[in-house]
Amino acid sequence: MLRKNHFKNKKIIVGITGGIAAYKVPQLVRLLKKEGAEVQVVMTDAAKSFVTPQTLSVLSENPVLSDFFKNTQGEWNNHVHLALWADAIIIAPAGANTLAKMAHGLCDNLLMSVILSARCPIWVAPAMDLDMWTHASTQTNIQTLIDRGIHIIEPEDGELASGLTGKGRMAEPEQIFSALENQLLPPPNFFTGKRILLTAGGTQEAIDPVRFIGNHSSGKMGFAIADALIQSGATVDLVFGSVSIAIPENCNTYGVTSANEMHQQCLALFPKCDILIMAAAVADFAPVEVASQKIKKTEDSITITLKKNPDILSELSENKRNNQITVGFALETENEKNNALAKLQKKNLDCIVLNSQSNPDAGFGVDTNAVTVLCKDGAQWQIPTASKSLVAQQLLQSLSEWLTKTH
Ligand code: C5P
Q: What is the pTM of this model?
């Protein structure tokens, strides 16, 4: 099974609190960066006595955040956006005070506010003196956090800063890295071992040699789905139009420009695939004629006649084999659910993923999304606002559960 680079495109917040073990965290940041993660360090003021923001900023290639406000003009670090941006949060070291704050929902610093706003998985690597660790209040707090689904990376036995020996040393950066790695690797699912034809990005329909009709699609959602499929061990044929981000690795890529090119490429690849996921924003119309030279602005107005493009998804879905599955996307500006349901039926789809245009944290260009999934047997569910990468993982996980039940 192909499962490489699974920190690639992962957005990870490394939260550092005050404690001597903070000096080891730059090594964790290095390991995460080496494996392709995007790292944002958020540290408390107390942590700065043990490790410098400069070191962490250089290693993470991002400014380190610790205050609610960026400057005296009142510009602030939006903890909600930070929390939604992240695919995972690791707090290392987490002292007894931090664990107590987390257990009781206190948010008196930026890191605590991020944690309270987070929807992604959270890990903590506790570090403290042995008696603080075994103290009933710490253990009760730890149990509260476990009950809430927070992953605890157990401290180790050994020499402590106090000179005492016992349990309380923070796990080594390599172990913290492995714990994240094991949990972030998705378990096998319906997509594992399957061949998926996935489209992403927008198409461009030429008007003349320098102009085109296009749309705002960035390819971010489609590429996040590609990454999640690759991590699940699927073989991905990715047909992409115009995009504004780097093209995923570890899949077969086919760049196209127009809807017609996408159509041809998809027709060639569809017979080999088990599942088609059409996340591309395909132009519905294209100019009837493409001017051979750049159109001059001699007239006050011009008319461009458009003709309908082939509906790739409808055509492929109509001709699908019994065991082939087709998933479409819909972006509606009104009567969203009903229009999406009508499309599900008309295009003979198994499922349709509805993007909400009315939500400012969802849709074109932004890093977050929120979707509703509608299936042909009436099943439907929502995936709330989170990073596109997390939404992609949750989308595939939920689709996998539905597909396993129904196929
Ligand atoms: O009909 P509408 O454009 O809203 O449908 C959206 C879905 O159909 C998307 O999955 C999109 O990729 C696909 N589509 C297509 N060919 C077109 C237009 C849309 O495959 N010409």
A: 0.72
